[in-house]
Design goal:
Elements lengths: L15 H17 L38 E2 L27 E8 L3 E2 L3 E4 L10 H5 L2 E3 L2 E5 L5 E4 L1 H14 L7 H19 L8 E10 L11 E9 L11 E5 L25 H9 L4 E6 L4 E5 L2 E8 L6 E5 L11 H14 L12 E4 L4 H9 L3 E8 L3 E10 L2 E4 L9 H14 L11 E4 L3
Parallel strand pairs: 1-4, 10-11, 10-17, 14-15
Antiparallel strand pairs: 2-3, 2-4, 2-9, 5-8, 6-7, 6-8, 7-19, 8-9, 11-12, 12-13, 13-14, 13-16, 16-17, 17-18
Helix pairs in contact: 3-4, 6-8
Amino acid sequence: MAPMAITPPSEAQVDKTSDLTLSGITTALQKTAPTHLDAATLTPSITQPQKPVLAQPPPQPLPDLNASLLQETHATPSQLRPVPALTDPLRATQRLATDHMIQAHWSLSTGWTAPTLTPYGPLALMPSASCLHYATECFEGMKLYRGHDGALRLFRPALNCNRMLMSATRIALPAFPPAQLLALIVKLCETDGPRWLPKHNPGQFLYIRPTMIATDPAIGVQRPTEAMLFIILTVLPQMDAVPGGVKLLASNDDMCRAWPGGFGYAKVGANYGPSLVAQGEARARGYDQILWLFGDDGVVTEAGASNFFVVWREKGTGVLQLVTAGLGERIVLDGVTRRSVLELARGRLAKGTTAGEVEGLEVVERRFTMDEIRVAAEEGRLVEAFASGTAWFVAPISKIHYKGEDVEIPMAGGDMGVYTGLLKGWLKGIMWGEEAERENPWGVVVNEQ
């Protein structure tokens, strides 16, 4: 699953619109993250980026984002926010943030300012700010875990930081070295993690939301010349424990979440706002989320804001397969949990490996349709299905409503499928410190102040 090179493709590979986008992103990297040019990415991938080929020598560089310049102003005792008990309903409101936040500002003329750590509070924005009018905004979703071994951990955080760079440049926001963003995230986790995730309550997490918005106060459809990066930690409820499994409503022919040549692969706000009406209607009808289909043939893309997986036996051959949408059309997100599921499946469940008491399977990333799922269910070839993402984690799918009928998804393990349970258990072991770092380096320990 190697990323494409940062060098803009030839006309034979992309159309003129895509070429303009790639060229514009390359220019932005030259201007806004000069020290990162040896490792920057502009492609829909979260792997280690490749070196760009510069069209012309870069201008005199402006200051990059630099975590070592962080200026700290800590909350006073009276400013500290009460940490709610585990049974407090406030935890389910998704409105509670921790004590501090980190900010950094950028402008076209001065580059990045020194970041600041301050007490959590409102942002100052002009009513004409670009993000309020033109959706010039991107973000990431991550978690800070309190492990059962007592340690605080992040899960593969470099992948999120690489992806945020890609999203920022896709939405005309400034670039930055991902390692510097990661250093700021770690600092905020070191500051607020110990109080909000106490050692006597292992198995809990905080949600991390790095965000970048265009703050340029000029009304006009143009590249913003000012931006703000901020990072907050919030309290979210557990979302993967859905009684009876997640129920999905397949989208109609007149609905479309993302399209080839668009920005479905980037984590930008414009991907999410337009989906909320349909999501609300689905919940009003008794379903948990929308299964987003694309095109007249109903190509499966994502389940809500999560990647979608199905386990079935291939028609004709009977080969057991784990199937998910590929990244080539750029209409699904290269999710960190998605990537981890695929890597674990290839390493621990693939045919020819030691899969324990379960049958080994083939891992496939390809274009597939809802009709293929329906036919597999009718023919008894459908084994299970699940969705994956940072918020939902790994959630079993029990039903998909499609063209007036319910497609029932087996859950042989009782509350989920057998393969869903294995993959979810392995990921939990890494995230919560039950699998040693020497065996799997995906869990990154955060030092505590």
